What does this fold into?
Amino acid sequence: MRGDRLASGHLDAPSPPEAEISAVEYYRPDDRFSPQTNGKRIALAQDRAARPPDGGAFAEDFAATWRRAYRLCRDQPGGRTVRTRHGGAMLLSEFVLTRVVEVAVHGLDLADALGREAWLTPATGDAAPSCSWARSTPRRPTSWGGAVPASCARPPVGSC
It folds into this structure.
């Protein structure tokens, strides 16, 4: 499972001496978001989607992964740094914030695709304002339900 990278790679590796990027800088435009790279992501997702589903195994793997990642993150000292798969060193707290943002954004996409109301939680809303990209978005939202969608070119929550 992709989320196990945090548990198996980032936290098992030595801590970089200092953070080089923030959660905001993590989303800087570069080749990670190029059409070629996005094409590779799409092809990988299509390949995974074509595999026979095993919902039970997926659910068990997901539960084990989040529990291990939570335990490992909880046990880290304040100021712990990690190296991302893209090479930048960042505070673990900032990296975890990027994971919250990713779940929120893709949850909005999923809700939109299913024609359902988005299900962002209050805890997610409490975390988002600490990520300055949400504060610096060109369309200043008045609520969390508008912060992530506005900064990611998604419709506001409730308009999906």
Remarks:
- Confidence is low (pLDDT under 50) at residues 132-145.
